[in-house]
Amino acid sequence: MMNPDILRFTQETGDFSRMLESIPYAMFIGLECDRFGDDLIFRLPRKEQNLGNPVLPAIHGGVIGGFMELSAVIYLMMSQETLRMPRIVDFSLDYLRAGLNRETFAECQLTRQGNRVANVMITAWQKSRSQPIATARAHFLLED
Question: Is residue 126 within 8 Å of residue 102, measured between CB atoms?
Answer without folding.
Answer: yes
